[in-house]
Design brief:
mainly alpha; 3 strands
């Protein structure tokens, strides 16, 4: 196996464990221990953890090594949604104004291939998670904003870890909301696109707050 492919596989394996909470939020990570478990040398584990650090899924502490990033607090989650509400309605509205025929075809194709997760595990949820990321990133791309796209990428994994912990069963509702957004973009209706994204984000946050409250 090529070294790059090995690092890719190790990275995906560790990320899956973090996302599925096989490695708990805030847990210490042993490079040697992970290498033994995965049957590899410590080198690809170090490289994989460096990638995960850049995605803010793990944190490197001086003289203490790595740990997984703690779960978002309710206040941090609220801040994240406030931030998204500032940028994503604009992105959707701008996409409705600027999207080319090729971009609209990509949006239709993304919705056509999206499915809700069928099981309560990360492997099942991963396909929906990938769709959700692609959908929101595509809106930013169609709006022509690299800054919005990068901002969404920086925050996306933390939101999905939180969802994985508290509320995975969001697929059907989220897909319906994505379709409403896409319909507005495809209809070249900026106001409707912005409203649909705003409603989607507010409903998503409300679902997570309710689930969090029920688990206390």
């Amino acid at each position: 196996m090529l070294p790059g492919r090995l690092v890719d596989d190790v990275h995906e394996t560790i990320k899956a464990r973090i996302m599925d909470h096989a490695i708990a939020p805030g847990a210490r990570l042993s490079i040697d221990g992970l290498a033994r478990e995965l049957g590899v040398s410590p080198t690809p584990v170090r490289e994989a953890l460096a990638r995960l650090e850049s995605a803010q899924l793990v944190v490197k502490e001086p003289l203490r090594g790595y740990r997984t990033t703690p779960l978002l607090t309710p206040d941090q989650l609220a801040d994240l949604y406030r931030f998204r509400l500032l940028i994503e309605p604009w992105a959707a509205a701008t996409a409705a104004e600027r999207a080319t025929p090729a971009g609209r075809a990509r949006l239709r194709a993304e919705l056509a291939t999206a499915d809700a997760p069928e099981a309560d595990t990360y492997p099942a949820y991963r396909a929906f998670s990938a769709h959700d990321a692609r959908f929101h990133l595509l809106l930013a791309e169609l709006a022509g904003s690299d800054q919005v796209r990068e901002a969404f990428q920086r925050t996306n994994w933390h939101l999905h870890i939180y969802r994985q912990h508290y509320h995975r069963g969001i697929g059907p509702q989220a897909l319906a909301e994505h379709r409403r957004i896409a319909d507005a973009v495809l209809a070249c209706d900026p106001a409707a696109a912005a409203d649909a994204v705003r409603d989607h984000l507010e409903l998503s946050h409300a679902r997570l707050r309710e689930e969090n409250h029920d688990r206390r």
